[in-house]
Amino acid sequence: MSTLESILKETRSFSPSDDFRQKAIVSGMESYNTLCEQANQDYEAFWANLARELITWHKPFSRVLDDSAAPFFKWFDDGELNVSYNCLDRHLAQHGHSTAIIFEADDGKVSHVSYSELHRRVCLFANGLKSLNIGKGDRVIIYMPMGVEAVVAMQACARIGAIHSVVFGGFSAGAVRDRIADTAARLVITANEGLRGGKSVPLKATVDEALTLEGCDTVEHVVVYQRTNGGAHWQEGRDIWWHKLIEGQSEQCEPEWMNAEDPLFILYTSGSTGKPKGIQHSCGGYLLGATNSFRWVFDYKPGDVYWCTADVGWITGHSYICYGPLANAATQVIFEGIPTYPDAARFWRMIEQHKVSIFYTAPTAIRSLIKLGADLPKEYDLSSLRLLGTVGEPINPEAWMWYYETVGGSRCPIVDTWWQTETGSIQIAPLPGAVATKPGSCTLPLPGVIADIVDESGAPVEPGSGGFLVIKKPFPSLVRTIWNDPERFKKTYFPEEFNGQYYLAGDSAHRDENGYVWIMGRVDDVLNVSGHRLGTMEIESALVANPLVAEAAVVGKPHDVKGEAVVAFVVLKGARPTGEAAKKMAAELKNWVAHEIGKIAQPDDIRFGENLPKTRSGKIMRRLLRSIAKGEAITQDTSTLENPQILDQLAEPL
Ligand code: WT7
Q: Which residue, of 119, 214, 421, 585, has the greatest Cβ tally within 10 A?
């Protein structure tokens, strides 16, 4: 990659109020700079101090970073701890009666779970798992609906040293099978059915189907939580009800003391090519990353009510539902349902009802809620909010401004948090009481994160030009390896092009004159139009800035003269146009883009759909769009697609 041109110009900037800054955990730029300076001066001491301050060790560590087998780094590797102990037991004396979880079910029913109650349920279930002879190092697949039990299952595994691998409840039997086979799991934990948006999700039936497929014969038992009255096919001897398993178990369960480098979990993430990668995280370093970043970035303090809308099937649900908040003794909302059921005001009603003060969601959710009711938040009392967050993809400045003004009442800082399944915890984001925000930028690295943007020789690029986002020093919560595939780990994340020294995130980014990071998209999404390298996200942002556009995805298609031409897939806020109306609208949008960012980025081709093809985590499946753009038949796997019928609409020429 030579230079990558940045075409997005955003000059608005928002500083935290004096009040917010004064009360913040990291208060003011001076404090931020001091922390960065400390990390600079003695990197290992910086992390060791945090590890001693934030984690309760069963046996203290004497070594900090061991890089002798780089890039297989080890942290705190002679220390011993238990993650579940750190999330539960150590809070009991002071916070036993505090609410850990406010659970709101799909149908609106609310229940509160205190720290001591959560501890009791985790111990019961952990003892149940032990009675099935599950213990340290065993792999356990968790395929559960969102809810308290999903967290209990994960925490119980952590407590006994079993390695969990959570599979998102929207995935198919094939995905469950792949993960069972790759981990050689002995146990699956599921529910008879899930409930989302008033509909039941046949989780147990999907597990049953997976277990008929090849590669699943390691599974000895399936534990089934009864979420609904719906039945379940039953295989005697193999299947066990959750409530039967915990019957008569002790409410005490001594934690298994783990080495800091023992695996805590494996979470699969799909790359743009190849089979999903089993991202393996450690007990010690991961817990430190999740715990510390939760405190710094969300500025959590007693009295706050925090709500992250992610599913536990994604890394966000691991780090910022199951582990980070609990390790900080936080009170959090966990929501079973979807943002649009029973109507598009669900989130706003819940924020009002539970007096949520910190709200963390994804740009895709924000855009869809703008589309379904941009004025709806005004009908609710959202004055409890003091901080907003986003994660998962770049947020286009227009959506950012709406979030800031309409949801946050122009009062709440927005933390745009850049990180990945592989990094385990947030790496680049504004510390909200210190760093001023700019719409569309994830701003500055957290103290201790040595991020840079480099060209293909590894040399830093000039401000304003784009390059590869890298992290130049290993950090505690970084992925340890790809399960079963250390070679792929090395090649993917520490490639020889950079002498195996830098962690390569796979994103392109640029920095502005203030050092702020602007993510431009995945490296493989980059277009080359007439020798100009353009990040697709910037063109998408321009399109979405048009008042008629709700959502847009841009890909390249081969072009005789230009190398690549821009093809845009657009969802309007109103109905999907067809015929003459579509042609007219397309012409208008082409002019719009030319006007917003210049003719170079103008789409050659625009297609309209009622939606975009997305994975169930909301990521746009660009490889499908690339095929459509080229006019090819779709041969790729579409099984993880939320809405397969959308492909035909988008393939329809104007
Ligand atoms: C990729 C990681 C991190 C949890 C959810 C996704 C993109 C993530 C941002 C952000 C711009 C972002 C990147 C990254 N991404 N956060 N704030 N701004 N892009 O986890 O599935 O591992 O995906 O999501 O491209 O590499 P993931």
A: 119
- Find the 422 Cα to ligand 1 centroid distance in Å: 10
For residue range 357-387, what is the model confidence (pLDDT) as tens digits?
999 999 989 988 998 999 999 999 999 999 9
End-to-end CA distance of the chain: 34
**How far apart are alpha carbons 317 and 461 in whole angstroms?**
34
**Gap from CA of 192 to ligand 1 centroid (Å):** 32
620 phi, psi to nearest 5 deg: -70, 130
Residue with CA at minimum distance from ligand 1 atom 24: 392
Question: What gap in Å lies between CA 328 and CA 325, rounded to an integer?
Answer: 5
Instruction: Please report the sign of the dihedral spanned by the C-alpha atoms of residue 531, residue 532, residue 536, residue 539.
Output: negative
At 260-313, the pLDDT tens digits run 999 999 999 865 445 789 999 999 999 999 999 999 999 999 999 999 999 999
Determine the residue of 267, 418, 446, 507 to mutate for testing ligand 1's pocket, defined as the one with the most ligand atoms within 8 A of the Cβ atom: 418
- What pTM did the predictor assign? 0.88
Strands ordered across the beta sheet of 187-191: 239-241, 221-225, 187-191, 139-143, 163-166, 263-269, 277-282, 481-482
Of 420, 438, 446, 619, the residue with max ligand 1 atoms within 8 A of its CB, to mutate for a pocket test, comes to: 420
CA of 426, closest atom in ligand 1: 3
Distance of CA 469 to the CA centre of its chain: 18
Cis (ω within 30 of 0) for the bond into 342?
yes
pLDDT of residue 10: 79
- Identify the residue whose tokens are 């919560």: 477
Angle 41-292-482 from CA coordinates, rounded to 5°: 90
Rounded to the nearest angstrom, the distance between the alpha carbon of 547 and the centre of ligand 1 is 26
Whether residue 644 has pLDDT greater than 60: yes
What digits encode the pLDDT tens for the residues 71-114? 999 999 999 999 999 999 999 999 999 999 999 999 999 999 99
Q: What mean pLDDT is predicted for residues 402-427? A: 97
Closest ligand 1 atom to 421 CA: 22
Residue 538 CA to ligand 1 centre (angstroms): 16
- CB burial of 583-607 (b: ≥16 within 10 Å; e: otherwise) equals eebbeebbebbeebbeebbbbbbbb
CA of 392 to the centre of ligand 1 (A): 4
Read off the tokens for 467.
Answer: 């390059």
Contacts of 462 (CB under 8 A, 6+ apart): none
Please name the residue whose Cα sits nearest to atom 13 of ligand 1: 393
The residue among 238, 177, 179, 173 whose CA lies nearest residue 202 is: 173
DSSP per-residue string spanning 146-181 = SSHHHHHHHHHHHHHT-EEEE--TTS-HHHHHHHHH
The percent of the chain in helix, strand and coil, each rounded to the nearest 5, is 35, 25, 45
Q: What distance in angstroms lies between residue 393's CA and the mean position of ligand 1's atoms?
A: 5
SS3 label, residue 132: coil
The mean predicted confidence, pLDDT, of the chain is 93
In the numeric block, the tokens 């060790």 are attached to 57
Residue pair 327/283 in contact (Cβ under 8 Å)? The answer is no
Contact 413, 8 (CB under 8 A): no
The minimum-distance atom of ligand 1 relative to the CA of 395 is 18
SS3 89: helix
